[in-house]
Amino acid sequence: MLPLSRFAELHTPFYYYDLDVLNRTLNCVKSLAQARDYRVHYAIKANSNPVILKHIAGSGLGADLVSGGELKVALEAGFDPSKMMFAGVGKTDEEISLALKHHIACFNVESVPELQVIDSLAREMNTIAPVALRVNPDIDAHTHAYITTATAHNKFGIAIEDLPQVVEQTQRLPNLRLMGLHFHLGSQITIMEPFQMLCHRVNELLTYFEDHGVHFTMMDMGGGLGIDYSQPESMAPFEQFFDVFSQNLNLRQGQQLHFELGRALVAQCGSLISRVVFVKENRDKKFVILDAGMTQLIRPALYQAHHKIENLTAKVDDVTDTYDVVGPVCESSDVFAHDEMLPVTHRGDVFAIRSAGAYGESMASHYNMRELPLSQFSR
Ligand code: LLP
To answer: How many domains is the chain built from?
Structure first.
């Protein structure tokens, strides 16, 4: 339940985070992962609000990073560097050195040139860098094209056919320690088949490398578990997700399984709260114009995502009408929803755009010189 009375006095737009929803989600994931001895890392990119980060760090999860900036905020929030993984196709020398300085758990490496640079920087710093090789397993995750990461033509990872040779090259670099393999299929994956296929692909690789005398201690299956955007505050199907791996993956003795979940941990605890600036009619269409736009939440404009929209001011039995719900930004893509059925809406009404805790605030921008959104918390 969103506390409308608290919102009435507040300057909009802002993100409202329900910390009870977040805690419930974290507790659920922790207990399922602990029971299976799986390690979960939170993908910082999903939401790097300091209060949210502190909460997640406090729950004991690790962190999945993609930049030096994320490393810094993760440290500030109290994440343990020995539980940090660093992914990304374009890590700079400065970012690699910073991560080496803090002795993070593992670099998820995407190419041979990157391996060579990490090796030489580690040598300069007189240290050994733990690495995992990110494999592109050529699996279609059946999600939006912009968030599909593991098909053959994506920029991510090392092609599966090149892997044996890259493993050999890694083993020859003296300042690297090869820990294991890393995969990430994409994001907002709502069916389990792609994860099952991933398990089968990994089983084949484990057998191949075992036959060739290579033993891995870590397998990182990435993130990608989707949520139900039509049911705000609902729990992602964590149990089903983990079961896919416990039922299909043939891990060898001493191999630890890791995950990097972002969206499924934070999406449902956040709502974007906004006020209606104007209601306008143009030919046969009615528009609700909010004071939040694609600068606060870009997902509808960028991925044609639909977030549930609620008019918090309206009464349950108000008559309804059909509106396009849009933002104030000077782009026709600045639309939250087309033909949305809503209670009859007036200037000044307070709206909530739900399930916006992941990739909302973290993707906000200053475009049109707009202010970055503020945040409020349930307690
Ligand atoms: N690990 C790696 C290597 C990743 O690239 C990502 C997300 C994750 C883990 C976390 O994935 P998740 O569990 O959150 O699906 N902005 C887009 C999503 C981009 C995802 C990028 N990588 C959106 O709003 O839908």
So the answer is: 2
How remote is the CA of residue 189 from the centroid of ligand 1, in Å? 10
**Cβ pair 303, 146 in contact under 8 A:** yes
Digit-coded pLDDT (tens) for 232-259 = 999 999 999 999 999 999 999 999 999 9
Q: Dihedral sign for Cα 103, 106, 111, 116, please.
A: positive
| Domain with 208 in it | 19-266
Atom nearest to 299 CA in ligand 1: 24
Tokens read off for 343: 């209670």
Domain shared by 125 and 229, yes or no: yes
Q: Which two tokens stand for residue 311?
A: 């008019």
Report the CATH number that the domain containing residue 308 is assigned in CATH. 2.40.37.10
Any ligand 1 atom below 6 A from CB of 115? no
Residues 145-204: pLDDT tens digits? 777 777 777 888 999 999 999 999 999 999 999 999 999 999 999 999 999 999 999 999
Domain end call among 266, 282, 300: 266
Give the gyration radius of the chain's Cα atoms. Answer: 22
Q: Is the bond leading into 13 cis (omega within 30 degrees of zero)?
A: yes
Number of the ligand 1 atom closest to the C-alpha atom of 46: 14
Report the predicted TM-score, pTM, of the whole model to 2 decimal places. 0.97
Q: Are 149 and 272 contained in the same domain?
A: no
Answer yes or no: is the C-beta of 226 below 6 A from any ligand 1 atom: no
Q: Which of 225, 244, 266 is the last residue of a domain?
A: 266
87 lines ligand 1 (CB under 6 A): yes
Measure 185 CA to ligand 1 centroid, in angstroms. 9
- The token pair at 49 is 């609000």
Is the shortest distance between the CB of 39 and ligand 1 below 6 Å? no
- Binding site membership of 13 for ligand 1 (Cβ less than 6 Å): no
Alpha-carbon torsion (110, 114, 115, 118), positive or negative? negative
| 298 Cβ closer than 6 Å to some ligand 1 atom | no
